[in-house]
Design a protein that fits this description.
By secondary structure, the protein is an alpha/beta fold. It has 16 helices and 18 strands. The strands form three sheets. The chain has a ten-stranded mixed β-sheet, with helices on both faces. The protein has a six-stranded parallel β-sheet with strand order 3-2-1-4-5-6. A two-stranded antiparallel ribbon has the order 9-10.
Length: 503
């Protein structure tokens, strides 16, 4: 990783523009992340952060909004008043209506009105609706601010199906080279996800076991205890399959299943991830009916508090929840059809209003081929590597050990734990902190390439189409549970069960 970092130096100057600068993503994630990097001295000394929105704010008005956001979303111990003042001094706000040419002229003037404008790296973060990606890119080209030092960041979702994803990619690709386009998935910036690559490829003992001979199955879970909240209008047009499976879960699957690249470099990791997506077993209508489960949360209890149903949550945003057929839960079984993984099931699960907030990967190894302790007591369980992505990043390796004491052998499951919070005496950066710095430096390794996005949509689209043509409604599950019973049955049919984080 150090070699990669050295090939992407921090530039001398940067203009980091956030379209949607007063939105939730900017205030909750992007600006606190940039502040943290400023606190660590990693931002280029000559950095400006430009907020673009339709809010009638001057520079000072936006700075006050950002100051409030920092107090809310940054730990008190990380708020250094001198650095806060320096960071706020970097901020400029521009009121921009995309339909007004004069506003674009003022934006052009703002970018050009700085020392060393001709050598400044320009980052355009499009924290807006994907339908605007193409138009904004075209406008940037028209005012002459897209050159070899320009980079554009696209938030998910990239389209809502294959055709729309291709249209978005075409529109942005007409303006920016593929090497300048950074499609962000914040899961790829998490410490435990990156450490998965190190665990696999920097430890010789594990790689020989990472195949169908020794691995029984793999589980990937992204569970949320929250409901849709204020995202109802967006979420009801997306659903869990588009919102989570097509990007987050498939990206995690790729990192688990990919072949070793020649080195961790600009394109090598993305090349191997693409091969995994292309090797996913296509889902026929029969496969979809048998190996996928979709659900929707009903009213229930989360952490002892009553919470409303999905329909009621939609009603609060002005939508008719009773008519919706949108899923808030997905479970499915798939397979990577190549020599390494042939015959190994991959079980994916994601949902809202579940009994816990957790993102995790569990690699379950096969049981020993021969039971050597016939007179023993206790339980011998298959070995498991449990990778916790959030909220507490770390790893646990589950083994079987002998319980101390005389009088025979008593088997007992134990675990070797690696908690990043306790193993490393330093603060763990938020995923956006790492990814935003990679954009500034021009390192695309942890971002999705166009062919990855479109390969993922190619695999997901038959599922979307089958569900759309089915008269069946998503199965109901009470909020605060682990999802529909059918999701449990999906694994029980194969003689397996979901591995929960406390097991």
């Amino acid at each position: 990783m150090a070699e990669i970092a050295s090939t992407y130096p921090v530039p001398d100057s940067c203009d980091f523009t956030v379209f949607g600068g007063t939105g939730d993503l900017a205030l909750r994630k992007l600006l606190p992340a940039l502040y943290q990097r400023d606190l660590e001295g990693q931002l280029p000394a000559d950095t400006r952060v430009l907020g673009v929105s339709r809010s009638e704010l001057d520079d000072e008005g936006w700075r006050e909004e950002v100051r409030t956001a920092l107090r809310t979303h940054v730990a008190a111990g990380d708020l250094d008043e001198a650095v806060v003042a320096r960071f706020l001094g970097r901020l400029r706000h521009l009121v921009l209506d995309a339909r007004e040419p004069e506003d674009w002229h003022r934006f052009h003037a703002l970018l050009k009105d700085r020392p060393h404008a001709e050598t400044t790296v320009r980052v355009f973060y499009l924290a807006v609706a994907p339908s605007l990606f193409g138009d904004l890119s075209t406008r940037l080209e028209e005012i002459g601010v897209v050159d070899e030092r320009a980079r554009v960041v696209l938030e998910k979702p990239i389209g809502h199906d294959l055709a729309s994803a291709q249209a978005v990619n075409d529109a942005v690709g007409r303006v920016f080279e593929e090497s300048q386009i950074f499609r962000i998935d914040h899961y790829l910036g998490k410490e435990s996800v990156q450490n998965l690559l190190v665990t696999r490829f920097a430890n010789a003992f594990l790689e020989p076991l990472w195949n169908s001979r020794w691995v029984d199955h793999v589980q990937i879970t992204v569970a949320e205890s929250l409901g849709v909240g204020e995202r109802g209008p967006y979420y009801d047009n997306a659903g869990a399959l588009r919102d989570m499976v097509q990007n987050h879960l498939l990206q995690l699957l790729c990192l688990v299943a990919m072949e070793p690249p020649t080195h961790i470099g600009r394109e090598t990791v993305r090349d191997e991830k693409l091969k995994v997506l292309q090797a996913l077993k296509p889902m026929t209508p029969v496969d979809i009916d048998q190996h996928t489960v979709r659900g929707r949360y009903a009213a229930g209890l989360v952490e002892g508090e009553p919470v409303p149903s999905y329909a009621d949550d939609l009603g609060r945003t002005g939508l008719d929840g009773a008519r919706s057929r949108t899923e808030t839960f997905v479970a499915m079984k798939t397979e990577v059809q190549n020599w390494r993984w042939s015959g190994v099931p991959f079980y994916l699960r994601t949902g809202k209003r579940m009994d816990r907030r957790a993102s995790e990967i569990v690699v379950v190894f096969k049981a020993p081929p021969h039971h050597m302790f016939p007179g023993s007591e206790g339980v011998s369980e298959p070995n498991r590597l449990h990778i916790q992505v959030q909220p507490d990043e770390g790893m646990r390796l589950h083994l079987t050990a002998k319980e101390p004491g005389p009088g025979g052998i008593r088997l007992r499951p134990v675990s070797l734990d690696l908690s990043y919070a306790t193993a490393f005496a330093q603060r763990l950066p938020d995923a956006y902190e790492r990814l935003l710095m990679d954009v500034i430096k021009g390192n695309p390794t942890l971002f999705m390439r166009r062919d990855e996005v479109e390969a993922a949509w190619t695999w997901v689209e038959p599922i979307l189409n089958r569900w759309a043509s089915s008269p069946d409604q998503p199965l109901r599950y009470p909020a605060g549970t682990s999802g529909p019973v059918a999701a449990t049955t999906l694994l029980e049919r194969d003689g397996r069960s979901w591995q929960e984080s406390d097991q």
